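subagent[fold] <- orchestrator: predict structure for attached chain, return tokens only, no commentary.
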Amino acid sequence: MAKNQEVIRQLFESKATVRRKKVRSRWLSQRGKGNESGV
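subagent[fold] -> orchestrator:
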């Protein structure tokens, strides 16, 4: 059970990071259209 919880937690964390990356990239693209220096 502990191992199963660990797997679930890892999945949840990876999903959260993917979502955060998507939001951040979208926010960056909205902030500076065509200005992608330092991305």
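orchestrator: received. Logging for downstream: The longest helix spans residues 2-31. Residues 21 and 27 are 10 Å apart (CA to CA).
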